[in-house]
Amino acid sequence: MKEIKWGFIGCGEVTEKKSGPAFGLVEGSSVVAVMSRNKEKARSYAQRHNIPRWYTDAQQLVDDPDVNAVYIATPPSSHATYAIMAMHSGKPVYVEKPLAASYADCQRINHISEQTGVPCFVAYYRRYLPYFIKVKELVMNEAIGKVINVQIRFAVPPRDLDYNRDNLPWRVQRDIAGGGYFYDLAPHQIDLLQEMFGPILRAHGYHTNRGGLYQTEDSVSASFQFADGLPGSGSWCFVAHESAKIDRIEIIGTRGRLSFSVFTYEPIVLQNEEGTQEIIIENPPHVQLPLIQNIVEHLQKRAICTCDSISATTVNWVMDRVLRK
């Protein structure tokens, strides 16, 4: 492919700034169609972003002869259906994270990708951001010596929408999201750690609902182990008091400690025998741009993108093990 002409299935919040504009900023890439089941939403999005066509049916978008690649930005429960639909039509797919609502659905996607030879990429864009590239560089250069333990800590208060029992966010509806907020946010953390330390081969967890605001889990504790024996642990709470709010991953080494955030991009803190150093790294305004550029260049046969469905599937395996799905 010389010109990658994207069709969007879904046009929610993530497409407004994080991803959508980036497709038009990459050379040889443009958006030619968008789809939403909500007619007014599809029409409005197309008009606001100067996209030529809009649809309310996903199959019509996939069948559009001008569309030669598909971006899926819907809730996880429909990822497998739309990804398989596009791949059967010979059109490469870029799917929002997590790859699917379950490990089993990830396997289905991989099977069709292998069967058709059509690639499927996944939006684990943090792998490509300068902030996390710096974290990985510090680890690989042994700025804290040999890594001996990894810890994830995440806690936030409930969101205002979590109190609306008649109209709860889709992210806390298991049949749509695959779980609660853990299934929505933990993927980025788990993927980053696997990018740095290799695959997690063992994972166990405990989950519960302590706040009673919705049906899915709101508090999770987990332990896991990477292929080389490195142990790790994590705790997540989505109904915490404001005073307990935290977004931090801590990497402990034989000669120091490295800590960083995943969602707030607070300064990276490096502590070793040379003292304490705070490192500030800026990310691009459209955070998915570096990954989308790599995908476009892959489809143009000018690069190789490894952020594919195979590498993304292990994240779902870990989460399903932690939640005992």
Q: How would you describe what is shown here?
A:
This protein has 325 residues and is an alpha/beta fold. The chain folds into 2 domains: 4-124 and 286-306, NAD(P)-binding Rossmann-like Domain (Rossmann fold), CATH 3.40.50.720; 130-283, Dihydrodipicolinate Reductase, domain 2 (2-Layer Sandwich), CATH 3.30.360. Helix content is 32%, strand content 25%. The protein contains 11 helices and 14 strands. It has helices at 13-16, 20-23, 39-48, 58-63, 79-88, 103-116, 130-140, 174-177, 181-197, 289-299, 309-322; strands at residues 4-9, 29-35, 53-55, 69-72, 93-95, 120-122, 147-155, 200-208, 219-226, 231-237, 246-253, 256-260, 268-272, 275-279. The strands form 2 sheets. The protein has an 8-stranded mixed β-sheet with strand order 8-9-10-7-11-12-13-14, covered by helices on one side. It has a 6-stranded parallel β-sheet with strand order 3-2-1-4-5-6, sandwiched between helices. α5 packs parallel to α6 (103-116), α6 packs antiparallel against α11 (309-322) and α9 (181-197) crosses α11. It starts with a strand and ends with a helix. The mean pLDDT is 97.
